[in-house]
Design brief:
About 30% of the residues lie in helices and about 20% in strands. It is α/β, with parallel strands linked by helices. Helix 5 runs parallel beside helix 10.
Length: about 270
């Protein structure tokens, strides 16, 4: 595995890795150029196993041996000191391993729905940490796919990928481009749209009927704001996770995990 040493943080060969902490810049750069950044060896290897083609690798010089077993082919491997990495990326890369990958085209929502029994739908979830945690919970708790409203954050943004521990690569996802009318497509595919809300008159999630659970599409909104009235109106059933001690709701990622566990609690392991 040939390794190319980088000494200048402005070297154009590592332009993919510049200013990784600038969310606005990365949002303008990554999706239009069809790339995303993976941080850490574990996440990098999961992306490769999921079939994402690598563009390049960038490692701290003393960690280059961590990738020695990879068949990198024609994909360049760059190495630099910790200081050069910091000046390039804008933060201390404490895992010491980064990679740039090509994105793959997203499947249409109909294709994702056709292969799923249970899905999570997100409206305007634009916090990358929450989004990554949701994908990890979905992967762990038996949900088959995620559908995103047009205003959701990018699941392949570096922080989302890292928080998910690479599970964004394992969970099929698609966008519902028409919102909230796209929920009609979900319903037409045989799903019951369950809107999660703290409303006191909502149905406790553990009391859903077998028919409501059979093909559940769990709909959640952004942290704080929750679901919009339009999305709520487009759902079939409003459901609530009962709270104690005066707590009105959970963080959206925690609520997703609790609701996914409840919907799948009787699934065979």
């Amino acid at each position: 595995m040939p390794v190319h040493e980088i000494t200048d943080p402005d070297d154009d060969r590592i332009a993919d890795y510049r200013a990784l902490t600038d969310v606005e810049l990365r949002t303008r750069w990554e999706p239009p150029h069809g790339l995303f950044i993976a941080e850490g060896e574990l996440v990098l290897r999961r992306a490769l196993r999921a079939g994402y083609p690598a563009r390049s690798y960038l490692v701290e010089s003393k960690r280059a041996d961590q990738l020695a077993d990879l068949d990198t082919g024609d994909v360049p491997v760059y190495a630099a000191t910790a200081e050069v990495l910091r000046r390039t990326t804008g933060f201390h890369v404490h895992r010491g391993v980064l990679a740039s990958f090509h994105r793959r085209p997203l499947p249409p929502a109909a294709e994702v729905l056709a292969a799923a029994r249970r899905v999570v739908i997100l409206e305007d979830v634009n916090n990358h940490t929450n989004l990554g945690a949701i994908f990890r919970a979905v992967a762990a708790l038996g949900v088959d796919a995620v559908l995103l409203s047009p205003t959701c954050a990018d699941p392949l943004y570096r922080r989302s990928v890292r928080v998910s521990m690479g599970e964004v690569f394992a969970v099929p996802y698609a966008k519902l481009e028409r919102w909230p009318t796209g929920l009609d497509e979900v319903r037409a595919a045989g799903f019951t749209v369950l809107a999660l809300t703290p409303a006191p008159d909502a149905v406790p999630i553990q009391r859903l009927t077998d028919d409501q659970r059979a093909r559940a599409a769990l709909l959640l909104g952004a942290e704080g704001a929750g679901l919009t009235p339009a999305a709520m109106a487009a759902s079939d059933v409003r459901v609530v996770i009962p709270m104690r001690r005066g707590v009105d709701s959970l963080n959206v990622a925690a609520a997703t995990a609790v609701a996914c566990w409840e919907l799948g609690r009787d699934d065979p392991m």
